[in-house]
Design a protein that fits this description.
Layout (H helix, E strand, L loop, with lengths): L35 H10 L6 E5 L8 E7 L2 E7 L5 E5 L13 E3 L2 E3 L6 E3 L4 E3 L18 E7 L2 E5 L7 H4 L3 H8 L7 E10 L3 H8 L5 H4 L1 H6 E12 L2 E8 L18 E6 L3 E5 L5 E11 L2 E10 L6 H28 L22 H15 L2
Helix pairs in contact: 4-7
């Protein structure tokens, strides 16, 4: 059972000189990256009303399987019911609000650890000690509260807003780009999940990942691997965009590749608001990079690595190691320094460098993201 949302909060926000046109626009005000009132408003205006990636259908192959994820501060559990159907619920007991499950596993019968109220994996209330003493009580009202769930190429997204448009309607082209880049997309399974905490606002992390203006100076090995120099083909698609990028050299400082190991090229994408699907050169694969807000100025990066098998081969291990030990630390350092700089009394708003004919340094997709934030908070 879905629940209606209260009206969106309205803040007396001043976006300064932010403009709908990237070429004329200043960036969002610095205070929007550390003001607790902004962060609270983002929960209702952004996180609770958009599609948030959780896991993959292959993570729940059997009835009773479950996966616990997050939508900002809301714990969500995705389950495969006894009928084989996938569903999502708020991960909370209907009795006294204790969380029900943690992590990932199999529980055909979900038992609350607090008072042992029981639910089936399809969310239906099963039983509780003392229920006969409850007067004027309808057992069905104790069923777990369902959340909208959609599969996007096998990747499972949830939305707390029952009236939201289907994800496939909001992003019809990007899924086709993913299949074009990786025809084996349906065969992918998660081989590893890796997380890292960042001392920066979630928007700072996404801003950094939406441009390569900083790449030549800060990601030298990445630039040896892929060729951004006016050879990135970018396309926008509703709430998403994608960059198809050519390889530069198989002999590179990121992770060297043999010709026979290159079965796919690069496709870097984004799905508003918090997930960045990344396909790197090598075997058929996808890295789902999720940005999980954990506080006003803290974020958790979650990397799910998908391949056609659960045990990564040698080339795939080199790729994972590069992401974890080189690329992510380079970006984390930049984001954490920017977050400090946003507090400076010498900075309020910057400008976007926009040259759509030179994608290697254009920042129009940072503006693409910031406009979504701006419009959500301003009620557009």
């Amino acid at each position: 059972m879905n629940q209606a949302f209260p009206p969106r909060p309205r803040l007396p926000l001043d976006a300064g000189r932010f403009d709908p046109a990237a070429e004329r626009s200043f960036t969002l005000p610095a205070s929007w990256y550390f003001d607790p009132a902004i962060y609270r408003a983002e929960h209702e205006a952004i996180f609770y009303r958009n599609w948030i990636y959780q896991c993959h259908a292959s993570d729940l192959p059997n009835p009773g399987d479950y996966h616990v994820g997050q939508v900002a501060d809301q714990s969500i559990v995705v389950t495969r019911g006894p009928d084989g159907a996938l569903r999502a619920f708020y991960n909370v007991c209907s009795h006294r609000a204790h969380p029900l499950l943690e992590g990932q596993g199999n529980a055909p019968l979900i038992v609350c650890p607090y008072h042992q109220w029981c639910y089936r994996s399809d969310g239906a209330f099963r039983g509780a000690r003392g229920r006969a003493t409850l007067k004027d009580w309808i057992p069905e009202n104790a069923d777990l509260k369902e959340v909208r769930l959609e599969s996007y190429g096998g990747f499972l997204f949830v939305n707390l807003d029952r009236d939201a448009r289907p994800l496939i309607e909001l992003a019809p082209k990007f899924i086709k780009d993913m299949y074009k880049a990786c025809p084996q997309l349906d065969e992918l399974v998660r081989a590893e999940r890796w997380e890292r905490d960042v001392a920066a606002n979630w928007k700072t992390v996404i801003d950094n990942n939406h441009e390569c203006y900083h790449c030549q100076a800060n990601h030298k090995t990445l630039m040896e691997l892929v060729d951004y120099d006016n050879k990135a083909h970018w396309s926008d698609d509703g709430i998403t965009f994608s960059h198809a990028i050519e390889n530069r050299s198989l002999e590179n400082g990121a992770y060297a590749l043999k010709p026979e190991e290159v079965e796919q090229h690069s496709l870097f994408g984004y799905i508003w608001p918090t997930v960045i699907p990344l396909m790197y050169p090598g075997s058929p694969s996808l890295a789902m990079f999720q940005i999980i807000p954990t506080g006003v100025e803290t974020t958790r990066e979650r990397w799910d690595f998908y391949f056609t098998h659960k045990a990564p081969n040698e080339q795939e291990c080199r790729f994972i190691d590069y992401i974890k030990t080189v690329l992510v630390p380079e970006d984390v350092g930049l984001c954490e320094q920017v977050q400090k700089g946003l507090h400076s009394r010498g900075y309020s708003q910057g400008r976007f460098v926009v040259d759509r004919s030179h994608n290697e340094f254009s920042e129009h997709h940072v503006h693409f993201f910031q406009k979504f934030v701006h419009d959500a908070l301003m009620g557009a």
